[in-house]
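USER: Write out one fold?

ASSISTANT:
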Amino acid sequence: MTFSPESNADEAEVSERVDEAIEGNDVVLFMKGNRLMPQCGYSQRALELIGKHVEEFETVDVLPALPQYREALADHSGWETIPQTYAGGEFIGGSDVLAELDERGELAGELGAE
């Protein structure tokens, strides 16, 4: 059996999942892979940075429908790159932005952890 990251998920279905994840969680990370097995260094770095400040947060693996997730997330943030972090329904950024905020001591506040 060959793994295929493409799914039968249509754009509307993925867009609805994205909306629900952003609205239904204090902090959500859209990433490649999952907490146990991040599939890219940027996703792993974002996990580590968020985990320094927030114990409970949602993660969404975008790989099963990557093109659909890219489009749905771009509608929210204007960015097509993954990972993407949202807190309180607002787009925070990817791993580089999280790292900059962490360096300045602002990440905890952005994530609502203060």
